[in-house]
Amino acid sequence: MVAFYTEAFGARFREEDAFGLASQFGEIGGITLKLVPLRTSMDFEDYLSHQLGFIVPNVETVIDLAIKHGGRQDGEILRDGENIHASVRDPDGNTIELYSSE
Question: Residue 45, by phi and psi: left (phi above 0), alpha (psi -120 to 50) or beta?
Answer without folding.
Answer: alpha
